[in-house]
Amino acid sequence: MPATDLKCHNPDTRLPRKEFQHEDVIHDVQFNWYGDMLATSSSDHKVKIWRNAGDGSWSVVTEINAHYSPVWRVSWAHPDYGAILATCSMDHRATIWRMVGQGVNGFIRWGSHVQLLIKL
Length: 120
Fold this sequence. Notes:
The chain has strands at about 5, 25-30, 35-40, 45-50, 55-65, 70-75, 85-90, 95-100, 110-115.
């Protein structure tokens, strides 16, 4: 299996972390509204966006160095608002990302739209 592919699997089967290409613990996994894209967040400070190839395989189309500490949650906006993703982290920041276009090799580029600093 190529390094960028994730095969659909039996929910009772645990996939090794390397299948998700994160370097640390994965904290959240969220599908978009249509179920054709998937976002994962991790303690490696990254968010990865996956796209379904239509044949049961998933490929990474974006890797966002999202925060300065572990990324705890990701959440997709309703499609009426466009391709928008929210992330929050232990760095006390919540960031709204929006898709800004297609990059090289089919990668999707995301830009930080709004960043909030949360003081406790």
